[in-house]
UniProtKB/TrEMBL annotation:
This is Polar amino acid transport system substrate-binding protein. Keywords: Signal. The keyword Signal applies. One of its GO terms (molecular function) is ectoine binding.
Length: 265
């Protein structure tokens, strides 16, 4: 049986242990992976990587910041060893890299006025009650609203969740859609708006859940499998939630989804 050293150009985990450091590709996105005001690497993915790689015998993590769109090309050209950026697992990406199992899932939530006067809990509600709807530039939520029957040209597109909150507070729209995590965090300072319970949007006729994970080069199955074993232990012990909680994650973001399911296999 061929070993990783003959098939994958050397066993990366052994090389990382010998070097004592693993290079993490990050994209400067809060809360997933970023450099904080003190110049320190943090975020849910780097903090989790620190714990898992320490257990695998690699003491240090080193950030390699890049653009989000350059993470997969950078990984495959060996600029870093693993993508630690909370990257969503989808079939297109699964053709280019291999993923760990997701460390979090992401549902949607709405920002609405206090008391949710229109009773908006799903994209169907938004359409049925003729609510004025906003979401962010390039957000997946655009497709979810359109699938429910909302006319794309009627959607107010704003830069981000802060602008979305402002639009709801000012009464320009009735509802802003985003991820449960970002909407929950942004309404904390508001006395005019609140966030709805997280829910699964409908995509292609089925309830859809996104999951974020670590990406590895396709040859590095040994490292990915070892990473998954430690991740599984952290999920079982509840330590995973303790690591992610400071970044706004809750029980609602914990998941048993597998990379295989999200890759469509």
């Amino acid at each position: 049986m061929p070993t990783a050293s003959t098939t994958g150009g050397g066993d990366l985990l052994d090389r990382l242990k010998a070097a004592g450091v693993v290079r993490l590709g990050i994209a400067g996105e809060i809360p997933f992976g970023y450099i904080d005001r003190n110049g320190e690497l943090t975020g849910e993915a780097p903090e989790l990587a620190r714990v898992i790689f320490k257990r695998l015998g690699v003491d240090r993590v080193q950030p390699v910041p890049t653009e989000f769109g350059s993470l997969i090309p950078g990984l495959n050209s060996q600029q870093f060893d693993v993508v630690a950026a909370g990257m969503y697992v989808n079939p297109e990406r699964c053709e280019q890299v291999i993923f760990s199992n997701p460390d979090y899932q992401m549902l949607d939530s709405f920002i609405v006025r206090k008391g949710n006067p229109m009773g908006l809990h799903s994209y169907r509600d938004v359409v049925g009650k003729k609510a004025r709807f906003a979401t962010g530039t390039g957000y997946a939520e655009i497709a979810y609203a359109v699938e429910a029957g909302y006319k794309e040209s009627d959607i107010l597109i704003v830069p981000d969740q802060v602008a979305g909150l402002n639009a709801v507070e000012a009464g320009r729209v009735d509802v802003f859609a985003g991820t449960a995590l970002t909407t929950r965090e942004v309404v904390k300072k508001s006395n005019k708006a609140e966030v709805t319970e997280p829910f699964k949007p409908i995509l292609d006729g089925k309830p859809h859940v996104d999951g974020g994970a670590f990406a590895f080069r396709p040859t590095e199955t040994g490292l990915r499998d070892a990473f998954n074993v430690e991740l599984g232990k952290l999920k079982e012990s509840g330590e995973l939630l303790r690591i992610l909680r400071p970044f706004g994650f809750t029980e609602a973001e914990m998941t048993d989804l597998t990379a295989k399911e999200l890759c469509g296999g």
